[in-house]
Design a protein that fits this description.
Number of strands: 13
Distance between the termini: 16 Å
Low-confidence stretches: none
Shape: globular
Largest sheet: 6 strands, mixed
Order of helices and strands: EEEHHEEEHEHHEEEHHHHHHEHEHHE
Strand content: 15-25%
Radius of gyration: 20 Å
Mean pLDDT: 95
Oligomer: single chain
Helix content: 25-40%
Structural class: alpha/beta
Length: 383
């Protein structure tokens, strides 16, 4: 089955598409046929920010919902063209959508405790344009079963990275950083997974704001490398924020690491490069904190006994990777390419696999990762 997986994450850098020929899930047998990535136009990025975790007009939400569906369809068509794949060969689309609000823990609302999430990107636009079924909106079914709706990529991690002898950590550094800890010789689903805290989100937002959008990310971490991190700020954040001490399952997002965090950093009154160095150190140290406090105990392993496979845009930030090596001495790190998962398209491949599982009637949440009461078939099918 040829499936297009679509991912657009909290970093708001754009749309990633992977065209995957999937033969089966257990074991995961697949061939990556094509990939395509395209940046959001500046006005689209600003429109998404304008409705993310803030007051917004319903008309803006509705229009952006449809616009994103059309942009996703554009990106799939370009991915097919890049791979020389006839559109008639496509069988299915799996689309995560653009998260504009995610509250994994129940909070009181109109007399009832509710957890909630909202991903936008009209699947009907994709189904109409591409002429194939679309699976979208994966999070709510897990949340209805008592889970936090995230992370979802551990489904792919458990299929690909399990090993009889080697305990492994799969780390993805997108807007938010998240990891999956998979013990050696563990049965499928015997893992933990959680968001460790900020990934690229804070760094990118600082740079976009300071340059009025002329720069959107710190290439290779070179600006941060020239700065001096404020160790006190990082130490205070790690000590004062209960999130880092909270045991998994847990999720984070723009609600925690968006405008509020950027404002707090800018309030230090430091030069931009120092702020970027501070944000980069916070990302590295919060990842290391999650690994040492929660991942290693699950793996029942020391740092030197485990492997970490890193994907996501943060893998390109050489300074960040160097900080991670210093924070986690002895841990072997490499990219996911060894498993035929390009670091920029692992999540898109994951949503192709999730969509395949849905149409095959296979549950694809991992309750030990999300906290759900039971396994569930995820997503909504648009034909």
């Amino acid at each position: 089955m040829i499936v297009a997986g679509i991912m657009s994450g909290t970093s708001l850098d754009g749309i990633d598409v992977a065209i995957v020929d999937i033969e089966g899930l257990s074991p995961f047998r697949f061939k990556l046929l094509a990939t395509h990535s395209e940046a959001y136009a500046a006005e689209v990025r600003e429109a998404i920010l304008g409705v993310s975790n803030r007051e917004a007009h319903t008309a803006d939400l509705a229009r952006l919902h449809v616009l994103l569906g059309e942009l996703y369809a554009d990106a799939v068509e370009r991915a097919l063209a890049a791979g020389g794949i006839a559109a008639s060969r496509l069988n299915l689309v799996g689309c995560h959508g653009q998260t504009i609000y995610h509250q994994g823990d129940a909070q009181p609302y109109l007399g009832r405790p509710l957890a909630c999430t909202l991903q936008i990107g009209e699947p009907a636009a994709l189904a109409e344009r591409l002429g194939v079924p679309v699976v979208s909106d994966f999070r709510p079914r897990d949340m209805a079963a008592g889970g936090k709706g995230a992370p979802l990529v551990p489904f792919l991690d458990s299929l690909v990275f399990g090993h009889p002898l080697i305990p492994r950590i799969a780390l993805n550094i997108g807007g938010i950083a998240n990891l999956t800890a998979i013990p050696a010789a563990s049965p499928p689903g015997d893992l933990i997974a959680f968001d460790t805290g900020p990934g690229n989100m804070v760094m990118d937002a600082l740079l976009r704001r300071a340059t009025a959008g002329r720069e959107t990310f710190d290439a290779n971490g070179e600006r941060a490398r020239r700065g001096v991190a404020n160790e006190d700020f990082v130490a205070r954040e790690l000590a004062a924020n209960p999130y880092y001490e909270a045991p998994p399952p847990k999720t984070a997002g723009r609600e925690e690491y968006g405008e509020t965090m950027v404002n707090a950093l800018e309030g230090l009154g430091l030069p931009l490069n120092d702020l970027l160095a501070t944000a980069t150190l916070l990302t590295a140290r919060s990842i290391a904190t999650g690994i040492t406090r929660f991942a290693l105990p699950k793996l029942k392993a020391a740092l030197a006994d485990a492997e970490m496979l890193v994907a996501g845009g943060g893998r390109h930030n050489q300074f960040l990777m160097e900080l991670l090596i210093m924070e986690l001495p002895g841990l072997r790190m490499e990219g996911t390419e060894r498993f035929h998962l390009p670091i920029d398209f692992k999540e898109a491949i994951a949503f192709a696999a999730l969509a395949f599982a849905t149409v095959e009637g296979i549950p694809s949440n991992v309750p030990s990762a999300t906290g759900a009461r039971h396994a569930a078939i995820l997503g909504k099918l648009t034909r």
